[in-house]
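Handoff note, outgoing to incoming analyst
You'll be picking up this chain. Sequence as last confirmed:
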Amino acid sequence: MLMNRRVRFAAALSATVFSATILLTLAACNDGGGSSAVTPAAAAPASISGSPVTSASVGTAYSFHPTINAMAGASLSFSVMNQPAWTQFDAATGTLSGTPAATDVGIFADVVISVSDGAASAALPPFSITVKSGSPVLATITWTAPVSASGQPAASALAGYRVYYGSTVAGMTHVVDVSDPTETSYVIENLSTGVWYFAMTSYDTALTESVLSAPVAVTL
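Most recent structure output, in case you need it:
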């Protein structure tokens, strides 16, 4: 029996870009020898942009930092609405970060991050963060159909297979029934990391079960 395993993970990264606009006031001379000042242009209000990361996984660090456009030297402050309980928010930078736990699986909707320069404010569109249970750990079990032999059902009467697995040989209490005798593989999902033991039997149309195969240990 050949055991294959696959572990999937994803990490989300966010990038931060800072930019600033500087306004210059110029003095103009006229032909009459006098002078007049050019009225300074009104300061552009701060703006906020960015694409928030909308998914997170249990046990994996999450972080989003918005992009800000503001006058050089502007005093900025940030706020957040509907902040997920598993996150921290930095009111000085607008960074939303945290690591969700298993109890945080679900959808956290209508999160809004805003920036204010003291005169005006701007906000990102509301967004949601979906917390998933984590990177799935899979084990793919493959086998060869049995032939007629002592302790095995007759091949012509083969009706299916049973996959037994657990964290110890004595604890292979999880059972999967594969009722299609033409199948030669099965994927077991949502396993935790660590060592797992797998074994199989086959059974015939009378539900007579064969002897258990030798257990195979797999480290996930």
